[in-house]
TrEMBL record, chain A:
Origin species: Desulfocapsa sulfexigens (strain DSM 10523 / SB164P1)
Protein name: DUF211 domain-containing protein
Database matches in SUPFAM superfamilies: MTH889-like (SSF160363)
Family matches, as Pfam families: DUF211
UniProtKB/TrEMBL annotation, chain B:
Keywords annotated in UniProt: Membrane, Transmembrane, Transmembrane helix
Superkingdom of origin: Bacteria
Protein name, as recorded: Putative membrane protein
Transmembrane annotation, as ranges: 21-44, 50-75, 109-132, 144-162, 169-191
């Protein structure tokens, strides 16, 4: 059994929802999620952002599904932190 | 309680609030003036047949609803699709399943409903005195005069609402729209034969 504790994503998103709403929606997926968003590049209709999600057990599928639902796309998974557990 | 995903959809739809508000006033104004014109016409022509007048007004009200709904739906749908396509090109993804896709489907329906229901509901309020008189309820004046007064009140309230949006003095904004309505009444009276 492994748990994903941190994911860093390179995301291309439209201007709306804005960074605060975008990060808030992701953080509300689970009470222990900690989300950090920083804008890398701004375009006329889009913005490239780095989204850092930290938590005890991150469900990547839910995260990527919500990102897609908000009209954004994941360009790359830049960093992942996975913790393994001892099996008997 | 509103779910987070609904909040996201609503935030997109919320952009349509201003458009819907504008449509509500402009088409509501259309509907009210149409009814006012018809009532004035019936009054000066000395129409006694309330049933005929009610049917004519209802026909016009339904026509205003269909016209308002279909025109707003078609134009808003086209606008939203164009907006969605441009965003899809910028993001290089399909947005049909996103909140943007949902909003592009629901927003035209919402705006079209406002655009259609606004003149219909105002028309029904203005025609109400004719209904009442037709069903034997005694009115202080001719039912057409009462309907004209109701129409003027509706127009005044629309003006007050416009004044509230533009942060103008409510009485002045209301009287300005009533003045436009009185010009309409005077013009119809001028052409009375």
């Amino acid at each position: 059994m492994t748990t994903t504790r941190k994911i860093v994503l390179d995301v291309l998103k439209p201007h709306k929802p804005n960074g605060v709403d975008f990060a808030t929606a992701l953080a509300q997926l689970s009470p222990d999620y900690h989300v950090r968003l920083s804008v890398v590049e701004m375009d006329a209709k889009t913005e490239s952002v780095i989204v850092v999600v930290e938590g005890n057990n991150i469900a990547f599928d839910s995260v990527s599904e919500l990102i897609k639902k908000m009209g954004a796309s994941i360009h790359s998974i830049d960093e992942v932190e996975v913790h393994g557990s001892e099996t008997i | 309680m509103i779910r987070e995903k609904d909040k996201q959809l609503l935030s997109h739809i919320y952009r349509g609030k201003k458009i819907a508000r504008r449509y509500m006033v402009t088409n509501g104004f259309d509907g009210t003036l149409t009814m006012l014109g018809m009532m004035t016409g019936f009054y000066v022509s000395g129409t006694k047949e309330l049933g005929v007048a009610i049917n004519a007004c209802l026909g016009a009200a339904v026509a205003l609803f269909v016209s308002g709904f279909s025109s707003a739906y078609l134009s808003e749908k086209a606008e939203r699709q164009e907006e969605l396509r441009k965003l899809e090109q910028a993001l290089l993804i399909d947005l049909e399943d996103s909140h943007y896709g949902d909003a592009s489907r629901y927003l035209p329906l919402l705006i079209a409903s406002v655009n259609g229901l606004s003149p219909l509901s105002l028309s029904l309020i203005i025609v109400a005195p004719l209904f009442l008189a037709h069903h034997g309820i005694l009115l202080p004046w001719s039912p057409f005069l009462v309907a004209i007064a109701v129409a003027l009140i509706c127009i005044f309230l629309l003006g007050v609402y416009l004044g509230k949006i533009s942060r103008q003095f409510w009485l002045w904004a209301g009287l300005r729209t009533v003045f436009i309505a009185l010009i309409l009444v005077a013009t119809i009276l001028m052409f009375d034969i």
